[in-house]
TrEMBL record:
Residues 123-227 form the Mandelate racemase/muconate lactonizing enzyme C-terminal domain. Its EC number is 4.2.1.6. It holds the Pfam family MR_MLE_N. This is Galactonate dehydratase. Signal peptide: none annotated. One of its GO terms (biological process) is amino acid catabolic process. Coiled coil: none annotated. It comes from the Bacteria. The keyword Lyase applies. One of its GO terms (molecular function) is galactonate dehydratase activity. InterPro entries: DgoD-like (IPR034593), Enolase-like_C_sf (IPR036849), Enolase-like_N (IPR029017), Enolase_C-like (IPR029065), Mandel_Rmase/mucon_lact_enz_CS (IPR018110), Mandelate_racemase_C (IPR013342), Mandelate_racemase_N_dom (IPR013341). Keywords: Lyase.
Amino acid sequence: MRTIETFQVPPRWILVRVSTDDGRAGWGECIIPKRARAVRAAVADIGDNLIGADARRIEDIWQRMHRDGFFRGGPVLMTAAAGIEQALWDLKARAADLPVYDFLGGAVRERVRTYAWIAGDQPDDALQHARQRVDQGFTAVKMNATAASDHLDRFATIDHLVGQVAAIREEFPDLGIALDFHGRVHRSVAKILLRELEPYRLMWVEEPTIAENEDVLPHLRDAAGAVPIATGERLMSRWQFTRILQEGTVDIIQPDVSLTGLFELEKIARMAEAYDVAVAPHCPNGPVSLAASLQVAYCCPNVVIQEQSGGIHYHQGYDGLPSGELFDYVTSGELIESRGGFFARRAEPGLGITVDDTAVRSADSSWRLPDPNWRHEDGRYAEW
C-alpha cells in the first residue's frame, strides 16, 4: 500500500481511497458521520501502520488492524478498519478483473430484493409516501415507529402508529412493511406495540431495544408473537452476533458492512445460516457501502433483502449541505440502481462501481452533522 486517504463529501459520506505502487486504487466507505473527524483520524492512525504492506493479504491486514492495538473494537475503530478493508477487496478484485463475490464462493442468485424508507424521523403521512414507493416499483418499505418515546407513552402515540400501519396494510395487502423501533422504544411500551402490531403481518420489527439492553430481547420475543424480530446494525463482529444467535431471540440480523467489513459480513451471514436466521444488511449509507454489501448478498443465500438510502430522509435537513443522492460521486451508478424493487447482479470487477475521483476530491470538506438533541417534554434527554 502506498497511500490511504479519507474524504468527507455531502450529504454524509466518508469515503476511503487506498492506492498501491503500481497506480491502482480501491475505494471503501466508513460511517458514523456525526463523528466524522474521529473516524478520519482513526483511518489515519491505522493507515500509518499499513503503508508498505502487501495489499493482497487482506485477512492478514484485517487481523493486524484488530490485534495490533491493546485497545480494540468500538464503532470508530471498527468503521475505520472496515473502510480500509472494503478498499482492499476492491483493489484485489479489480486486479483479477473479477467481482468480489467470485472470491467468496461465487454467485447464488441473479437479483437481490431491496426496500425503501418512507416517512421520516417523526413519521407522519406514511400512507402517502408508501404509495409513492409502490409507484417507483418497490415491493417493501420501512419506517420509523415513533419519534421520541417514553417509558409510559400516551396511548394516543401507540394508536397513531398502529393506525398508520393498518392503513398501509389495508391498501397494500402484499407490501412488505418493516418497522424500525431504533432503540427508542422502552421495554414497557415495546411489549404493548408488539402485541398491537401482530395482526398486520410485518416483515419485522427492528431494534426493539438498544444493543446494551439485549438482555431484554427474550422478554420482547415472548410479547412479539408472530412478529419477526430484527437487530444487529450496531454490532460489529462474529463474536457479538454469536450471543443473540445462540439465544434464539432474533429472526433476522442486520450487520452493516461499514462496521463489520466485507469479509466479516460474509462470515457473519454464513454463521447465521447455521441457525436458520436471515440476514437483511443495514445500509442507510453511501454508494461504496451499498456496493460492498451487495457483493455479499450475491453470494450468501440467507441474505433476504438489502437496505439502500435512495431518497432517505437523512439526506435532507442539514444546513449548508446539498441534498446529495446515492450516486452523486460515482460514474457508473446505474450499475447498482434498483429496478422494480431489486438489484440485478452485475459482473463488473471489484465492488462493481467506479468512483469519480475528481468529484470526490472537489467536494471534500469538514462539515459536521449536528446531534439531534432529542428531549422529552419534561426536559429529559431521549433516545435518538
